[in-house]
């Protein structure tokens, strides 16, 4: 593991160099995050509307209303999983395509509108491939969510066997999900660089994994650890900043309702 650190360091430097050359990658990442956050808020409002319509005072009531509520909730959550994965895939592929332009072009010559061109390819020609890869992850996510719900119900009923089986199944699905997510990232890079379909990219990715699978896993783990630590530090700094602001300024909405204090810090 320690022998791989210099290469991981080189990869991080290359990523920073490419990002500084094509600063639009930062914009793409920010826009992807904002779009996903907006879609999550919209999904939350949709779930509330479903409960109000079918389970509230204006609902149809009875088993028919409960069945409609359950079906719509499952469909909405599945749509959230799939669309969220697709948004991440488009953002990732856009960035990967830009890095590919940086790598294969002359360092001293910047290609104009590289990120925009990469986004156009990801959101048009490669959209079907990205949607297919996202669908696989969405199916695994919804299966894991259903297993967790069943495990919680088994725990409430005191069914220890059901809890153990659910825990094992959840761990198995989580492992498969992690492996497919890792595999998809490599396939998305292939799609971004060469414009292959998902099946063709998957075949080439599988060939690469068989040759350099362990090395790729180690490098991915090292680089993601650095990004994870950076994200954690930024989250802590944001929380401290917001806490200091709320403590010093003490805005009206916090004075009127102290519950907003923890909510605002958590959101930050």
Short description:
One of its GO terms (cellular component) is plasma membrane. This protein has 268 residues and is an all-alpha fold. 87% of the residues lie in helices and 0% in strands.
Can you describe this structure?
This protein has one domain. The protein has nine helices and no strands. The model has no long low-confidence stretch (mean pLDDT 80). It has 268 residues and is mainly alpha-helical. Helices cover 87% and strands 0% of the residues.
- The low-confidence parts are none
Q: Give the strand tally.
A: 0
Structural category: mainly alpha
Give the overall pLDDT as a whole number.
Answer: 80
Domains, number: 1
Any idea what the radius of gyration is?
Answer: 22 Å
Instruction: Specify the helix fraction band.
Output: over 70%
Strand content: under 5%
Question: Tags for this entry?
Answer:
single chain, 268 residues, mainly alpha, globular, transmembrane, transmembrane transporter activity, Choline_transptr-like
How would you summarize the topology of this molecule?
Elements: H1 5-21, H2 24-55, H3 62-104, H4 114-123, H5 127-157, H6 160-194, H7 198-249, H8 252-256, H9 259-267
Helix pairs in contact: 1-3, 1-7, 2-3, 3-4, 3-5, 3-6, 5-6, 6-7, 7-9
């Amino acid at each position: 593991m320690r022998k791989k650190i210099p290469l991981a360091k080189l990869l991080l430097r290359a990523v920073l160099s490419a990002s500084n050359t094509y600063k639009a990658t930062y914009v793409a990442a920010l826009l992807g995050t904002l779009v996903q956050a907006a879609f999550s808020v919209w999904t939350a409002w949709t779930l509330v509307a479903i409960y109000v319509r079918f389970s509230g005072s204006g609902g149809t009531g009875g088993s028919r209303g409960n069945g409609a509520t359950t079906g719509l909730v499952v469909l909405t959550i599945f749509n959230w999983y799939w669309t969220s994965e697709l948004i991440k895939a488009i953002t990732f592929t856009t960035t990967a395509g830009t890095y590919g332009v940086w790598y294969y072009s002359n360092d001293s010559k910047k290609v104009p509108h590289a990120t925009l061109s990469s986004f156009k390819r990801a959101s048009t020609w490669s959209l079907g491939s990205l949607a297919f890869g996202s669908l696989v992850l969405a199916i695994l996510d919804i299966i894991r969510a259903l297993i967790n719900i069943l495990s919680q119900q088994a725990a409430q009923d005191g069914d220890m066997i059901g809890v153990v089986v659910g825990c094992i199944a959840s761990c198995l699905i989580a492992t498969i999900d992690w492996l497919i997510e890792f595999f998809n990232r490599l396939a998305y890079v292939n799609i971004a660089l060469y414009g292959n379909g998902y099946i063709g990219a998957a075949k080439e990715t599988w060939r690469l994994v068989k040759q350099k699978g362990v090395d790729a896993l180690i490098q991915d783990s090292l680089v993601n650890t650095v990004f994870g630590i950076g994200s954690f530090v930024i989250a802590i700094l944001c929380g401290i900043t917001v806490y200091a602001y709320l403590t010093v300024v003490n805005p009206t909405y916090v004075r009127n309702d102290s519950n907003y204090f923890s909510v605002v810090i958590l959101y930050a």
